[in-house]
Amino acid sequence: MVRLNKIYTRTGDDGTTALVSGPRRQKHDLRVEAYGTVDETNSAIGVARLHTAATPDLDAMLLRVQNDLFDLGADLAAPETGEALPYEPLRVIEEQVVRLEHEIDQLNAGLDPLKSFILPGGTPAAAHLHLARTVARRAERIMVELSRCEAETVGAPALKYINRLSDFLFVAARFANAGGRNDILWVPGKHR
Fold first, then answer.
1. What sign does the dihedral 166-171-174-178 (CA atoms) show?
2. Please, are residues 58 and 107 in contact by the beta-carbon 8 Å criterion?
3. Residue 34 in contact with residue 146, Cβ under 8 Å?
4. 102-123 b/e with 16+ CB inside 10 Å = b?
5. Which tens digits make up the pLDDT trace of 40-53?
6. For 126-184, what is each residue's pLDDT tens digit?
7. CA 164, chain centre distance (Å)
8. What distance in Å separates the CA atoms of residue 116 and residue 89, rounded to the nearest whole number?
9. DSSP string covering 53-101, please?
10. pTM for this predicted structure
């Protein structure tokens, strides 16, 4: 269990931060950028949840996702090095990806088929979920870049999870838009 008795430590005043596994990295390090952007995604979902109380099933899904995103952040903050650790690092697992896929299918089942791209907007919940989706896509791009760096690892379930998450958030936004009825469709070249 995590205990945070003292919030500031002054150890980051030099522009570094500690990974869960101990080593210090520059605050602009790609790994730190990855888990920081995952945290930003989580915060955007938190704002969206201010508007989802009327849809308790969706709100419960979003709460599960927020918890998963802390798991993902912990996974990224404890990179696999091949060295033995005095604890079992928390890793995103395939079952979390499967659950997310199931929830995508559940939300998508009642939506009207798409005939155009959707402009972010509609209800406040949908607008915030679309914003969270774009932040999740940025987190995914950073995680993929990190996974391509020599001497860096990112677990396959973590990469799958962040990829599915933006799909989930897209479908969740449509669900929050009265099942897609309040979606704002893109009309190509409308204002030329």
1. negative
2. yes
3. yes
4. ebbeebbeeeeeeeeebebebb
5. 999 999 999 999 99
6. 999 999 999 999 999 999 999 999 989 999 999 999 999 999 999 999 999 988 889 99
7. 9
8. 43
9. TT-HHHHHHHHHHHHHHHHHHHHHTS---SS--SS------HHHHHHHH
10. 0.89
Token readout for 80 is: 């696999």
**Residue 44 CB partners (closer than 8 Å, separation 6+):** 128, 131, 132, 135
C-beta contacts of 154-158 below 8 A and 24+ residues apart: 154/34, 154/76, 155/75, 155/80, 155/91, 155/92, 157/91, 157/92, 157/93, 157/94, 157/96, 157/97, 158/72, 158/75, 158/76, 158/91, 158/92
18 phi, psi to nearest 5 deg = -95, 135
- Nearest Cα neighbor of 134 from 40, 33, 36 is 40
Contact 186, 157 (CB under 8 A): no
Residue 151 has phi, psi (to 5 degrees) of: 70, 10
The C-alpha atoms of residue 192 and residue 186 are separated, in whole angstroms, by 13
Sign of CA dihedral 128, 42, 51, 169: positive
